[in-house]
Amino acid sequence: MISKTDAETFFKTYEKVYNDAIAGNVNLNDVAGNYSTGFVSVTPAGVMVGENGQQLKDIMKKGFEAYRAMGSKKMTCKEVSVTPIDQDHCVAKVQWSGEYERKDKSPVTIDFEVDYLLERRDGSLKVFGWIAGDEQAEFKKHGLA
Asked: Which of 20, 66, 72, 141 is deepest in the core (most CB within 10 A)?
């Protein structure tokens, strides 16, 4: 089974990779290393599927550039809970806290939750999907978009 401790360790590494990317020190191989060979994304915008490879790296690079441009400064993994699916799969509910800077330089913190589908593949945890709320609506609500 994937333990809470294993998931917490994974998301602390995920947090570091994300924050490095926000700081402009993106290592796209590290980013891609967090994801399985294929994945599904579920948001209010719809359901999308993708494969891990150059296309994912390109999308992630553009995403980090967009986050930086709108004032993203730091992401902190606050809490992780795990619901097992089977021996090698689980749902990890992750509480995130994002620190941002508006155009007028005022700070804002946005707390949010994402459900990640995790699998153990070749001895490592990998994301094979996620279910998230409407981040664009939250950014607009807080004067970031």
From this structure: 72
